[in-house]
Specification:
Strand content: 15-25%
Structural class: alpha/beta
CATH topology: Maf protein
CATH superfamily: CinA-like
Radius of gyration: 14 Å
Oligomer: single chain
Largest sheet: 5 strands, mixed
Number of strands: 5
Amino acid sequence: MTTESDTDLGETIADLASSAGVTIAVAESLTSGAIASALGASPQAGDWFAGGVVAYSEHVKFDVLGVTPGPVITAECAEQMASGVGRLLSADLVAAVTGAGGPGSEEGKEAGTVFLAHGRPDAPQVEELHFDGDPEEVVRATVDAALVAMARDLEAQRR
């Protein structure tokens, strides 16, 4: 479900990506395609949005995105997902998310723990985030954080 803030951020991302001639790709586990959906609903997405990979299954992370087998709720996994989707879709800017949506902990990580990788595919920045709420609220907050990070990355490229 796309919210009003997603629409506003999507429009900002669309304007910045279009003016910079940048393509964007996403790799999603926790959010199951919600980030791609928000981007795809943005203006002229066909010009700047390369696409996304929903890597909910570990084998998709490992076999498609090139993530090193092991725990998947880690900063390293998010970074490798971002780099992998950038290579796969030839994108200039990427974002990737993995995390424990809840209601319980996973892989020893508390519910609401999210790793967000974003930036250039060859050197993504990784943030560890913590959100409160039920799984739907964690996903919503993760989508918002990813869109904000992408807009921030595009703004930084302008300078």
